[in-house]
Amino acid sequence: AAKEEREKRGLAHGGYESAGQHLSPHVISEHHHTDIIRKIAVPVPKPYRVEVERKIPVPQPYPVPYKVDRPYPVAVPVPQPYKVDKPYNVPVDRPYPVPV
To answer: What is the pLDDT of residues 10-58, one digit of tens each?
Structure first.
């Protein structure tokens, strides 16, 4: 069964893999350094500042209808003319009796 397995893999005549030894001391592997790896630059987003204008809602006044019985809720006094004595000059140097 082992011989058939080796024949399937192409090692029927006892290759270096079956013997467990290297090709030569200086050869590490037949596939050593055969892979080409290229680093492709991928753009990475960097953080940046964005100025944002904050729109804060300000309550706007609006008229609210309400019921009024009369034009003004209390009686408004009407100015009336009344008699006043005619002003006259009073000397300031002597005392002046004032009715209390």
So the answer is: 555 555 555 555 556 666 777 777 777 888 888 888 999 999 998 999 9
CA–CA separation, 96 vs 89, rounded Å? 12
Burial 49-88 (b: 16+ CB within 10 A, else e): eeeeeeeeeeeeeeeeeeeeeeeeeeeeeeeeeeeeeeee
Which tokens in the block code for residue 40?
């492709």
- SS3 label, residue 12: coil
pLDDT in tens, 78-97: 999 999 899 888 778 888 78
